[in-house]
């Protein structure tokens, strides 16, 4: 359409030049189209419609230069408006593209296992049961009933789990469940010692590389132990009456909970206390300070040391000492 409009304007200008060259610019100087060498066409018709070409007498025409100058000024204004609008649109497009490039995008990582009856439990006994209440085929809708231990699958330990007066699940402030995350990776140490305990030196080395653990953060410990999740005997790694899997030392937990004042501590093993522990001494250090735990997490080894956010969404059990939970890491890309 733009090309057609330009073609019409060119034809109009050609007609105007003929009138000007012939001096047919007043009623007294009007001439016939034959004298002007002009054929009837879209250019002449448009000029007559806009009163730039007038008929002084039958078949005698002249150019009204005042009207023609007005048409030219209008076209210049229109062209300027188009240039301004197009320029503004281009500028807006560039700004949007720049903002889009600067706006952080997030990738969400699911850090939890789906619950199944065959998942590892602490004592080896079934800890989850789901029965069918209704089906689409029979009832027109699907529904089920579940029974589950509070500390089964990927779960949250509320501070009340080991601390008298500590927060129960429903008492944990929501703001403490959506926090900056850090991840301390000890897979190399665990590969040499399944009973490895993260110690203060590990945390100090992490801080030397990645900066201090932020107050209110969720500190995650990646051991890689979650790779055994589908094999209960290997995951619990029980020999005789003693379990063997990695955890955190009391000094490490005290530093995170007391000195760095973290909101939570998470790990991809059955407990933040290492397998051989029988007194759960690490729990007893953190939970009186209202620090919750995430246990049986997964995919922690895929996380960077920092620069992500953790979202914890436990079953909100009133008075609960814990509960199965969803947990996600939101990573900026």
Structure overview:
The strands form five sheets. The protein has a seven-stranded mixed β-barrel with strand order 6-14-13-9-7-15-16. The protein has a two-stranded antiparallel sheet with strand order 1-2. The protein is elongated and about 120 Å long. α1 packs across α3 and α7 crosses α9. The protein contains ten helices and 16 strands. Helix content is 34%, strand content 23%. It folds into two domains: 103 residues, no CATH class; 199 residues, 3-Layer(bba) Sandwich (Glucose Oxidase, domain 1), CATH 3.50.30. The longest helix has 38 residues. With 333 residues, it is an alpha/beta fold.
- Level of helix content? 25-40%
Number of strands: 16
Q: What global shape is seen?
A: elongated
CATH superfamily of the largest domain: Putative cyclase
State the end-to-end CA separation.
44 Å
Q: What is the number of helical segments per DSSP (H or I, 4+ residues)?
A: 10
Major beta sheet summary: 7 strands, mixed, barrel
Strand content: 15-25%
Gyration radius over CA:
39 Å
Question: Could you give the order of strands across the largest sheet?
Answer: 6-14-13-9-7-15-16
How many discrete domains?
2
List unreliable stretches of 5+ residues.
none
CATH architecture label name of the largest domain:
3-Layer(bba) Sandwich
In CATH, what is the class of the largest domain? Alpha Beta
**Mean pLDDT, as a whole number?**
93
SSE string:
HHHEEHEEHEEEHEHEHEEEHEHEEE
CATH topology of the largest domain: Glucose Oxidase, domain 1
Give me the secondary-structure category: alpha/beta
């Amino acid at each position: 359409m733009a090309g057609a409009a330009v073609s019409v304007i060119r034809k109009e200008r050609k007609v105007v030049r003929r009138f000007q060259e012939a001096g047919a610019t007043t009623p007294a100087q009007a001439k016939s189209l034959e004298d002007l060498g002009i054929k009837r066409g879209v250019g002449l018709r448009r000029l007559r419609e806009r009163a730039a070409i007038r008929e002084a007498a039958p078949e005698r025409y002249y150019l009204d230069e005042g009207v023609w100058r007005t048409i030219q000024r209008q076209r210049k204004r229109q062209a300027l408006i188009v240039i301004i609008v197009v320029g503004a649109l281009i500028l807006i497009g560039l700004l949007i593209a720049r903002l889009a490039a600067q706006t952080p995008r997030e990738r969400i990582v699911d850090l939890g296992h789906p619950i199944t009856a065959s998942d590892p439990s602490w004592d080896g006994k079934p800890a989850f049961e789901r029965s069918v209440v209704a089906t689409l085929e029979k009832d027109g809708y699907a529904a089920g009933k579940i029974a589950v231990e509070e500390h089964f699958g990927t779960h949250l330990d509320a501070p009340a789990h080991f601390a008298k007066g500590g927060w129960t699940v429903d008492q944990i402030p929501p703001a403490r469940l959506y926090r900056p995350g850090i991840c301390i990776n000890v897979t190399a140490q665990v590969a040499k010692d399944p009973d490895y305990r993260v110690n203060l030196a590990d945390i100090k080395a992490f801080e030397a590389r990645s900066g201090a653990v932020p107050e209110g953060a969720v500190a995650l410990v990646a051991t890689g132990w979650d790779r055994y999740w589908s094999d209960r005997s290997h995951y619990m790694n029980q020999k005789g009456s003693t379990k063997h899997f990695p955890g955190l030392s009391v000094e490490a937990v005290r530093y995170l909970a007391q000195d760095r004042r973290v909101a939570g501590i998470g790990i991809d093993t059955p407990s933040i206390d290492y397998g051989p522990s029988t007194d759960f001494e690490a729990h007893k250090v953190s939970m009186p300070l209202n620090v919750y735990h995430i246990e049986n997490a997964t995919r922690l080894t895929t996380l960077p040391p920092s620069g992500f956010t953790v979202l914890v969404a436990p079953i909100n059990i009133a008075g609960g000492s814990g509960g199965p939970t969803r947990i996600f890491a939101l990573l900026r890309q």
